[in-house]
Write a structure and sequence with these properties.
This protein is 79% helix and 0% strand. It is mainly α. It is extended. The relative contact order is 0.05. The chain starts with a helix and ends with a helix. This is Glycine betaine transporter.
Length: 169
């Protein structure tokens, strides 16, 4: 959705504006930056800082329930804490699944546009399987090998895209 949201705002302008104009383009990007920029990052940072604080300063387990210990007390280590952790895991799984599904649709759309690959569930399922296998291989190989390799490849790809953008416009 991060890539599609500006296009959606551009195609369906906010009240008082015209669709498809320069002003609509600017407004579309403003809305997207508002939704995906510092305001969203600040919410993620609060959760990350709470987890990091309790993990590294209080030597607590890296669980969402551990961050609620000052509020819930001993209940954060009982059934209520387990329920909180289950909900957190469920929300994370749903978020990752949604991202993977939407990403597969976007990749399939790009392949259709560039190479005429059919845009259907079978192709999207294949993309999901390939991405899942690559993720599993990366996770199994650990930080020193797999994820470091992915980081290095990502930097090279970003560099190539930067150079191509500078040269080709």
């Amino acid at each position: 959705w991060g890539a599609a949201e500006p296009l959606s705002h551009y195609a369906v302008q906010a009240p008082g504006g015209e669709v498809g104009t320069q002003a609509a383009m600017k407004d579309a990007l403003r809305y997207s930056f508002f939704h995906w920029g510092i305001s969203a990052w600040s919410i993620y940072a609060i959760v990350a800082l709470a987890l990091a604080y309790f993990k590294f300063r209080k030597n607590a387990p890296g669980l969402i329930s551990a961050t609620l210990y000052p509020i819930l007390g001993k209940h954060s280590k009982g059934p209520l804490g387990q329920l909180i952790d289950i909900i957190a895991v469920f929300a994370t799984v749903i978020g990752v699944a949604t991202t993977l599904g939407l990403g597969a649709q976007q990749i399939n759309g790009g392949l259709t546009y560039l190479f005429g690959v059919p845009n259907n569930f079978g192709i999207q399922f294949t993309i999901i399987v390939i991405v899942t296998i690559l993720f599993m291989l990366s996770a199994m190989s650990g930080l020193d090998k797999g994820i470091q390799l992915l980081s290095n490849v990502n930097i090279y790809v970003a560099g190539v895209l930067l150079v191509l953008t500078l040269i080709l416009g």
